[in-house]
Amino acid sequence: MDKTININIAGTLFQIDDEAYRILRDYLQAINNRFRNVQGGHETIEDIESRIAEIFQSQKSSAGVISKDNVEKMISIIGKPEDFDLNESEPDAPVYTSQRKRMYRNPEDTIISGVCGGIGAYLNTDPVLIRILFVLFAVFFGVGFFVYIALWIALPPANNDTQKREMYGNAYHSANSYNKQPGETSPDGSTMYNRGYYNTSRLDNAFNEIFRAVGRVFYIALRIILIIIGISLVITGFLCILSFVMIFVFKMPGAITAEGLNMSLTYFPDFLNYVVNPSLTPWIIGLVFVVLFLPMIAMIYWGVKMIFWFKANDGIFSLAGLVLWVISLAALAILLFNDGISFAETAKTATQSILTPSPDTLYVKTSNKISDLRYDKEFSIMHDDYSVLINDEKKELYIRPYLNVRQSDDDVTMVKVRKRSSGRSKIDAMKRTDGLLYNYRFSGDTLFVDEYFTITSGRKWSADNVGINLYIPKGTILKLDNASENLFHSHNNFSDDDFSESAGWDTGRRSWILTDEGLRVVRRHPSGQK
Predict the structure, then answer these.
(1) Quick check: pTM over 0.70?
(2) Per the count of CB atoms within 10 A, which of 167, 218, 362, 523 is most buried?
(3) What is the pLDDT of residue 509?
């Protein structure tokens, strides 16, 4: 059994084991060295010894013997000697000051978080008055609630004697010298309220009890709200991470649909090689991973904290995560901007061909069809309206154009093909249109068009588009094959009524006529006559 020693601290006798005695002796010696040459230091040392006796009495150690753990816990509450504040305005005679006060949350006087108790201790007034003011401003002006929340976040709690000394100022020493607990009566008859002197009446105490009851209800309601928010954050963060992994890693958009985004994300990393410099693709993907994942992880972590309401020294990690996220976001923005993924200017070029004389019936057929292509992947934007086909072997991209039909002004049949690209400048964008390969021609009463245009190897995708604008006189009948009709449908150049009525017809066998109201289906009798 360890040796025990009897010691007297502030007039109270304690039994302490040998190891704890050595730690306590060194601590008291350090306190003595800290304050022995300080004005008022003797009183300060006595105050500290009285506080040590209070803490040992409240610990109720096993068999009444003070252990090493008891001493270490006491030191953590009071603070280390070097933590005590000294005012060395006079080098030859340093003076200890307890007059410098700071505002803290008071853990010894809490209704919700100790904000009002801390303000009352700082102002040396009854916290009841502060609580009443907060309630009035919250009810009549609406700002009291937000000010309270802001102070709750901004003010640290006074957890050790050093912080309490700064919070109470002189009131801390005068109250502590009587060695009384909060609510006890001091020799002059006033009520000691959390180590300060407040002339509290029964009415004040009644108000405090009311505030404590209301504060408890508010605290429970706040905890329920935080738990709900925390659960929502955890679920959202987890689902975001799961979606990200399944779409980009396992390429399973069927399990987690991307239709809400109006684009297919499955092959986005593969398509990225055709948008930016391929050597930058791994960096961009890595930065995107950090920019997306860090907020998801933060959502899950803070959600768990809200649910279980635990404290953790995570300030440095949160700050490091925020700095990493900001740096990654800035680096990603610089890479994307410098490599030209975001284009500032758009340019168009157009070519046209006229068919004379204008036929009564014009046929539109496809020369080169998508069904004849060999491609590895498809990247779709806005569902099927804009699809990019990727040929990894040839490093080429194939994109479907669209077909518009309009009435000509001079009763001639004409086709105008417009190419559009984006770039850093108008000149750059116009040069990019030259790299779009598309074929069309008139032959007799037939317009031959390709079902796709090509972006050749070595040229980056830049939101390219090709539009086929077909101008025909009013009354011209238009017949399209299957592939050209798909281009025609993509921009819906006909009325919804005609489209719904003709939906039962076989694709590519419909005839259209241009009227003043636009394109209309040529209706036929069951015998096949008009």
Answers:
(1) no
(2) 167
(3) 52
